[in-house]
Amino acid sequence: MKLEGRALPLVLLLTPACSPAPEPTYEGKYRHEQERVVPPTGREIEQWKEDIKLEEWQEWNRRKKEGTTPFNKAKATPAPEGEPAFHFTSAKTDPKPESKTTPNDLPRIGAIADQAYIYKKPAPEGLPLGYVRMGTSVALLSSEPVEGKKCPRGYYKVAPRGYICLDPRKTTLDLNDPYYRALAELAPREDAVMPYRYAFSNGAPMYSRVPTKAEQEKAERSYGPPGTFVQLAEWSRGHEELISRDEKDKIRATDPVFSIFANGKRSVGGNGAYDPSRLVWRVIPNGSMLAYARAFEAEGRTWLVTPDLMLVPADRMRPFRRTTFHGVRLGGDVRLPLAWNRKHEPIPRFTRGEDGKMVPSGQTIPSKGYVQVEGRVVAGKKAYLALRNEPGAFVLAESVTVTRAPKKLPRSVKPGEKWIEVKINPGTLTAYEGDKPVYATLFSPGKGGAPIPGYDPYVHSMTKTGVFPIEWKDRVAVMSPDKEWPPKKLWISEVPNIQYLRAPLAMHVAYWHEDFGNPKSAECVNVSPEDGHFLFQWTEPALPEGWGGVRPGDGNGKSTQVVITAL
Predict the structure, then answer these.
(1) First and final CA of the chain: distance in angstroms?
(2) Which run of H or of E encompasses 42?
(3) Segment 405-416, tens digit of pLDDT
(4) pTM > 0.85
């Protein structure tokens, strides 16, 4: 296999892009000091001053003394020379504040890094309760910092539970900070089915600002003319199915120039992870997928603004169209069993002819469509299913896959509990509340299908079977098989509604194909955007307001079980 003329590492083919992102690391000149245990030393304070710029440090202390911080409750006690004026409360001894306010009335802390983790205690120990995503904020239950481990500026208690570190690399109390405001303007809505627009990369630089034409020519010399690309090998075919060649889907400049890129300059920095003076911050390889929030015109080209504030030339991307496929809510007029057409073309309906033989009726069931069925009849040597509420109408049994309710609950599921049934070979997924089915759809399992004895499911892209309580949920996140972070070789940007079952196995949206019902993924349970949105909102635990990710337990609630079987 080839990727931009180089041999594709085997790990990219065999390792599914289904593992959560670790915290980013910063290398070289712009690598910051690691977090340390409080209280801070004088050397650490000097390092902070350098990291966040002296004028920002002085402005913070001035506002702290005046009581005009975002909380407006700062202590006016002067600090010793060179020391920060922080007052720490205690998570163990200080009384919990009595408050009847709603999250909208409370002070907030914002994230300026990809993920700012929330911990059970004021210490980065154990698995986080969840995190706050860049450009979003979470309500605080107290405006006073709490002393804790490896966070010199202190932790803040967030709603509804947990602690988050005030770290100038990752979080800010000033929601009017220009860098945070730029991120927040591009942040996804919590109720969004598709939080961004998406495209397939032909290979392109990711710029820190709008380059001049001369800079473009120099930086893109090795990529070939805009609009051209190297066709990747068979491994990439499944990722390219929704690439649109329709003129109506062409990426166009639909927005004004994003404010931080006005006049060919960049008005905010790179938050320490990137050198603001460098023109090219990253490269998105051929085969990766891009999420973008804005598209504007400058220097004769259309530029795409990524959620982390980089610019990519649109003429080196190919747009994805959005699938219209989705499942169906059950109840009322729609109930099981359902027969699905998972083929790529319509299939015929049948009726009985005068001689009693089955003949096509002239009507069809569209690709990925469903009909309600009941009895099974045999005509000649073939079996047919009768269509419910359509007397005299039938569908050939071998041409459909059927969603049926189980005869009894799985042993791990209690009466009334939410659970999800995933059947690999039929390609069906059904959500239940106890024995009551509430939602049915098609999904795509791993390309290798169900596990086969003697074969490693991980290596052969098989979807594992078993009972999997959801162990982590991401509202939107990058997925990649790369071992380093941020990824460099291959990644899928901002995948919506990810639910990890046993990492790297996950149930998540696939915005790059719509062949649901058939094997397609590296091993994960692929669902459509509409289905993924429903399932994410429906399963437990629910994401608290302002959180971007959550795990079950420790007050977050229990976990919905996903039961995966071959048949």
Answers:
(1) 33
(2) helix 42-52
(3) 999 999 999 999
(4) no
